[in-house]
Amino acid sequence: MPIYQQLGTIPPKRHTQFRKTDGGLYYEELFGTIGFEGMSSLLYHTWRPTQVKSLGEPYDVAPRIAVANNMTMRKLIGFDVKPAADYLDSRTPLLVNRDLILGLAAPTGAPMSYFYKNADADELLFIHRGSGKLRTPFGQVPFTYGDYVLIPRGTIYQIEFDGPDNRLLYLESHTPIYTPKRYRNHFGQLTEHSPYCERDYILPRDLETHDEHGEFIIKIKKQSHIHPVTYETHPFDVIGWDGYNYPWAFSIHNFEPITGRIHQPPPVHQTFQTDAFVVCSFCPRLYDYHPLAIPAPYNHSNIDSDEVLYYVDGDFMSRNDIAQGHITLHPGGIPHGPHPGAYERSIGKKETQELAVMVDTFRPLMLTEQAIAIDDGRYFTSWAEG
Ligand SMILES: [Fe+2]
């Protein structure tokens, strides 16, 4: 959960007259996600944010499912996803269920001639390569390698990259993405045993206030369609805002690993939670220090979830033949564990430089046509010793 923030100029009392220098009113908007009960922010627009001029023809962007019932362990070669100039075109859905879309993108950074809003889902971008900034009505969120960028549903944004070589892992979540509840106290503050804290947040800054009329296209994603809607005024016309609901970022490099004398289970790596999946960060850390410790994980029957690992950097201790950008999928129902030799190889090792993002989903994942196109096709045999 984010923290209370305030940027720009706001009136001393909410829901009261807030006037421009010419005497006209600023236009207040409540931006919340769970009715009027969840986290929200109050934004003050220069113009009414409701001035639709025209509606374009919606087009279908639903993922095309190739395998709906998957019981196969998979390895996807993520860097085989082709770069594309346009940000939305570059987003390639790979693993999906009714709760989320997990995909990869390699946008080469063409300037966005439109604005984008996901009305269905919170978005979580993980920046594997590249840097830039997210531009929103709340201000700008700069990002670089290793950042998670969390964009609450309904946030209008443009994304700008500093160069052409960008690689992103992205999630679209139909339930809100929060920090893990067990790391929050009664007041919502991250506690002393949390692996990161509010000081690590990258918060919106450099508020943009564009007092402009014209034609501004917002591509709104809703029910697996993109609806192009043209507005009369610039979406970034906010003079000030405050509240709890806004985009922010957090660097995986600021995740402080929790270690122990013996092997610690995956929940110690948890970084975000939803009702439908968790996100964990596997970061460089010292290994277990019991004299007889086995640092590699034990085999485990992930019977209740599908497990997705995205490999970012370093040697991944429990896997053979894994490279940057690979995605492994271990479907629920089949136990899995270290590859042959990895269990033994880990004994006596003092530390690991592995860096990976894990997504465990509580419902099975389906594979898209694009996922099958980059599937190595033989990963499921990689545990066999014969
Ligand atoms: Fe696992």
Provide a concise account of the structure shown.
The protein has helices at about 85-90, 340-345, 370-375; strands at about 5-10, 25-30, 40-45, 50-55, 60, 65, 75, 90-95, 100-105, 115-120, 120-130, 130-135, 140-145, 145-150, 155-160, 165-175, 215-220, 225-235, 240-245, 250, 270-275, 275-280, 285, 305-315, 325-330, 350, 355-360, 365-370. Helix content is about 5%, strand content about 40%.
Report on this model:
Strands 4, 5, 10, 12, 13, 15, 17 and 18 form an eight-stranded mixed beta sheet that branches. An eight-stranded antiparallel beta sheet has the order 6-28-8-9-16-11-14-20. It has a six-stranded antiparallel beta sheet with strand order 7-25-24-27-22-21, with no helix packed on it. Helices cover 4% and strands 38% of the residues. The N and C termini lie far apart (49 Å). The chain has 386 residues and is mainly β. The chain folds into two domains: 30-63 and 82-252, Jelly Rolls (Sandwich); 257-377, Jelly Rolls, CATH 2.60.120. Bound molecules: fe (ii) ion. Residues 300, 302, 307, 330, 336 line the site of fe (ii) ion (FE2). Its cofactor is Fe cation. Homogentisate binds at residue 336.
